[in-house]
Amino acid sequence: MDSEVEAMNISLDGPLSPRALTGLGMNCLFGQKVRPPGPGLASPLEFNQWLPYRHDAGLLPMKEDLAFWLNTIMGGDLTADSLMESLDNGVVLCQLAQLLQDKMMHPNNGKLLVRRVIHWRADASSGSFFARDNTANFLYWCRKIGLEEAYLFESEDLAMRMVMVDIKYR
């Protein structure tokens, strides 16, 4: 029995132990989550500069997953870095809606859903009225097929994201 306890103590202190891997010990499994430290609140300017980078780092895995999914569905070559620039004019979103609509079945009877005409302007430039209109048409289609509002975004969100990027890098 004592040898089992000693073996357990050795394994808990070994190179693959929770303490060695996380630096937190066994309490990390049940205790508070520890995040890498950011700037303190003593310097609001430093905190305001740090916050967007922390936010972007949290979105990276979602962007990677979305880019992978879109590439699988549409056969594109999107990356996490190019994702927002590819989506901001709404063309890819409308093409996705068209592609999904061609494959969708009604959940109750297994028949194809009623097809809806999805209008978009392929030459819409980022931030233009036509880009917003393309995105609004995609969102209209989403609502018509029954997606709940909680899962949607505002058409202005993509355009404003690009405006914020422009402001950030000036």
TrEMBL record:
Gene3D superfamilies: Calponin-like domain. GO terms for biological process: actin crosslink formation. GO terms for cellular component: actin filament. Pfam families: CH. It comes from the Eukaryota. InterPro entries: CH_dom, CH_dom_sf. Residues 60-170 form the Calponin-homology (CH) domain. One of its GO terms (molecular function) is actin filament binding. This is Growth arrest-specific protein 2. It comes from Liparis tanakae. The lineage of its organism: Eukaryota, Metazoa, Chordata, Craniata, Vertebrata.
